[in-house]
Amino acid sequence: MFERIERVPGDAILGLIEAYQQDTNPNKVDLGVGVYRDDQGRTPVLATVKKAEEQLYQQEATKSYIGSHGDTRYTEAVTRMVAGEDSAALKAQRISTTQTPGGTGALRLAADFLKSHLSGRAIWLSDPTWPNHPAIFDAAGIEVKRYPYVNADNRLDFEAMLAALGEVPEGDIVLLHACCHNPTGFDLSEDQWHRVLEVVRSRGLLPLIDFAYQGFGDGLDQDAFGVRLFLESLDELLITTSCSKNFGLYRERTGALMVLATDHEQMHNVRTQVAIAARENYSTPPSHGAAVVAEILGSQALTEEWKQELADMRGRINGLRSDFVAAFRPHGLEERFAFIAEQRGMFSYTGLTQEQVKRLRDEFSIYMVGSGRANIAGLSEASLEYVAKAIATVVK
């Protein structure tokens, strides 16, 4: 039977990891994989995570299942972090939160729920978007369509985005990036969020906001502006969130799906259906990462320490952005790449072509995704000038 199965190309980013590991060039630089790295190229375990794990080691009394909706301490803490302590929707008990195996698990759970209960509606994704977005919704049987996000000059094209959303059929789903847009790094301003909200309302669209990088843009509350605006302004909304980046829990698969309903009763109806979708998919989520987050957010001391660790990571990335732009100055390219300092989060949509990206890999052992997306957190003070010089070589 299996003789009819054809081989397919491997995941491009995982392929980059393998190629980078086999590269013997001492100057090699990995700008491909989407994880935070410190100046020594490590993805560290946060000190607060270590402390929480030590406490859990002493306290944990069982390895039993935690249920389809997950760890209640975790879901309540994450909901407060995302929605805000003073959220009217939260106080009205209109939000159902389900723990998921990472942000990807949250997206797939959302997709399965939408396919079951809003069948026939398309989902609109930004062009470009995270490469796994279309794959997830396509696999769930939801038609994927696109709205423009950047122009030919590699800048946010908000007016084109807004015009396209204004043509989306009533009832369709639109996926928005809460902050740190992946892969471009271009975020919406507060005024632009208000304008998108107007279109969503007037067209009767259902937003799904992907919130994978809370705290990596401008701060925990600042990054949540669009999410909280929509939560307090709409009757229905889906939010997917992840603790992979802001808690450094990549391999622990710690995410959540939040669903806003019109009232408390409808929220419970939705909640039962989400539980069925989870049961059919993965049954129950893993415990460890969620327990760590709950332990941190349940302690004022650990929460404050974690916020500082997060601020340090954010500050390092924003500092690298400014320093990277300055590194282009000797090559006469500072103005061309000035947008890098304006972007937010780990990623930069550099505007480099596939051929230029290939030359960077082949000639300089600098690895980035073929689309030209670079992980700024993969840079170090030692590699800034080397990478800037290499890019200057391939673009001239």
UniProtKB/TrEMBL annotation:
Pfam annotation, one family: Aminotran_1_2
Family under the similarity heading: Belongs to the class-I pyridoxal-phosphate-dependent aminotransferase family.
Cofactor dependency: pyridoxal 5'-phosphate
GO molecular function: identical protein binding; L-aspartate:2-oxoglutarate aminotransferase activity; L-tyrosine-2-oxoglutarate transaminase activity; pyridoxal phosphate binding
Domain of life: Bacteria
Organism of this sequence: Kushneria avicenniae
Full protein name: Aromatic amino acid aminotransferase apoenzyme
Alphabetical keyword list: Aminotransferase, Pyridoxal phosphate, Transferase
